[in-house]
Every structure is written in C-alpha cells, then in structure tokens.
C-alpha cells in the first residue's frame, strides 16, 4: 500500500487528530480497494486522495461536530503586501511553527496547501480532486500562502488575543 | 508587463505552472522590479519551508495492519470474476481436466476465453494497478540489488536480471513474485519521484526487440523489450519519455542465467 502514507497524511491534516485521521484513512482505503475495478484514471494516488477527501467531508456531515464555514471565493481579495523577508527566512527551519501555521488555516485552504506542497499535485489535479475551477484553486492557494507568510513572519502574533 | 499583471503570476511561476512565453515576460519584469522580486523570494522561501521540514504524517503501522486484515477477510472468500486470482483459475482448470468427457472441449475454450478477455498488456496493467492499490506491492523491500536478486533464488525457474538504477534516478525499491501470461514472473519495482514503475521479467521465447512503446492502457504507459533472453515489460503512470529512458537504462545489462 504505497499510497497509504499519502492517504493518511491528507486525512491527518484535514481531521487534525490521529484518531479521526485513522478512521478516515481506513474507510477511504477500503472504499478504494472495493471500487478500483472501476478506476479508469491516470493517477491512482490522486484518485485515492479524492476518496480520502470525500470520506472526510462525509464524516463531518454525519457527526456535525465541526462546522465548516462556507467560503465566498468571489469576495476573497488577495492583499498585496510583502512580509519581511529576513524574519520569514529565519522562521522556516522551525517545523513546529510551520505545523501550527498550517493547522490554523481554514480547512478549504489547508487541503490545497497539503495537496500542492506535500503531495506535489498540479493545479489541474487539485481542481479535479476538489471539484473546483482551477482559478479558485489558485486564489485559495494564494490566500493560504499569504496567511502562512504572515503567520511565520510573526505578523499574526496578536491574533490569539482577539 | 507591470506589477499588477506580474503579481498573480509569481506563485504559479514558483510552482512551475507557467508556459514558456509567460515565463519570459515575467522574468523580464522581475529583472526590472525589486518589489516583485522580493515577493518571489518570499514565495520560494515558503516553498522551501515545506521542503526542508518533514511536515507529512506517515501512516501508523497499526493502521496498515488493520486495513490489510480487513482486506484479506473481504477478498479471500469471494474472488470476483475480474479479480484475477491464480488459485481460483487453476482449480477451475483442474476441474475441467478431470472431467474426461469434456476435457478436450473445455480446456482450449477456457484458455482462449482467457486470452481474449485478458490480453497480455491488459493483464500487466491490471497487475500494476493491483500492486498499487492492494496489499501486495513488494515481497522483498530493498534498494540493494544484491539483496533482491538472491531473494528470487528457488522461487523462479530463472534468475532475473536485477539492477539498481539509482544513478539514473530510477532507484530500485524492491521486488515481488507475480503471475503473468500463465507463468510466474519476477516483478522489480522502481521509483521516479512519486511514480512507481513495475518491471515484469521472464525468459524470452522471442527474438531481441529494442524498447518499444506500446499503446497506453487506462492511462498507463507500457514499454516492452526483449534482451539477453529476457522478455521485459515496464508499466507506470510515468510519462512515455521517462519510461523509455528507464527501459534503455535497464536494457544495458546482461541477464544472468542459472
């Protein structure tokens, strides 16, 4: 099961904890195995990740434990500010800081960052996987990265007190 | 190009998602604009943050075990017709042969049915997909050709050529026994980035053939060649050019016969 790590990684980043991530990854793997006879695509890893994602959102709907806020992609404008390059550069070796910054992203941004930066999927593959227009993938990715840069450069330090 | 046009292109540029013309335009702007250059620097710094740190979670061993157990309990009792399973097929054949009255009729029919429904190329692609999705990717996990090659001793009636192609950026990750075209074959598994390559090898009946691209099946690329008395089939979701490159790299070696 060479793609199980990828499946678990996405599930873990989406779910935010080990227990739920294992449930999602297990259910998705079993579903994938059951249906892979019908699989006609080019990329079994992306296909498995699609199933992981759907499984995660289905489990949320069932449990209603965490509410996902709808994103209005039309309303998202990307601030054109540039963070301090030296501070940013000094923070990127701290894995824990980066993890926290990713975890703080809204789930719709987080999933795209994980698929792009950890799983190496192209914009088109992510768009197919998440059933979104490529333009939306790009704008969410840009927003997510802007937020990550700000977090890492320390410009969001006061956020927790708000 | 001005800053307003350049800014939305900076991340796609860092992601390698721009076409050649746009890259040239953007690079021209970057040479003239320090602000956009700084934005690019921050974008690449952030990408570096992902590369440098191990942020990915690996599947816990327990989870892997649970899924395997669950799959075995589901798959074992009721193999589906298209779920190609050796024991099942042999049982069927044995039953047919034991029925003397119909043996001459049934055996050739069953074989020809098998051939028509599963051409060799399709069978290889199915084996490849199953190795990716199922529980049976590797019997022996090693990047060392001197571990993988002896592992096949006594398991096959031939000694497959095994070579680590790490210097050519196709590292060997292991091997397994598989069953193709009615015989046991060696399957060597190689990797390029996140793409796996299955290389099926068995003794050749046919004359030498240089690495040849075969029509893709279900989006998988196939390269077939015959060299040093071995029939080789490489299959992967890797692009055709790199798969051919792999075949040429591998075909350079001589197969050792027992």
- What is the N-to-C succession of helices and strands of chain B? HHHHHHHEHEEEEEEH
CATH architecture name of the domain at 136-250 in chain B: 2-Layer Sandwich
CATH class of the domain at 136-250 in chain B: Alpha Beta
User: Can you count the helices of chain A?
Assistant: 8
What are the secondary-structure elements of chain A, in order, as H or E?
HHHHHHHH
Our Rg estimate of chain B from Cα atoms comes to 24 Å
Contiguous runs where pLDDT drops below 50 for at least 5 residues of chain A: 158-162
Structural class of chain A: mainly alpha
User: Structural class of the secondary structure composition of chain B?
Assistant: alpha+beta
Overall outline of chain B:
elongated
Can you tell me the CATH topology of the domain at 136-250 in chain B?
Answer: Phosphorylase Kinase, domain 1
The residue ranges of chain B in which pLDDT falls below 50 over 5 or more consecutive positions are 76-117, 254-258
Please describe what this structure looks like.
The complex is a heterodimer of chains A (162) and B (258). Chain A is built from 8 helices and no strands. The C terminus of chain A is likely disordered. Chain A is an all-alpha fold and 162 residues long. Helix content of chain B is 48%, strand content 21%. Chain B contains 9 helices and 7 strands; from the N terminus they run H-H-H-H-H-H-H-E-H-E-E-E-E-E-E-H. In chain B, helix 1 crosses helix 2, helix 1 packs parallel to helix 3 and helix 5 packs antiparallel against helix 6. Chain B is elongated and about 65 Å long. The interface between A and B is large, with 58 and 53 residues.
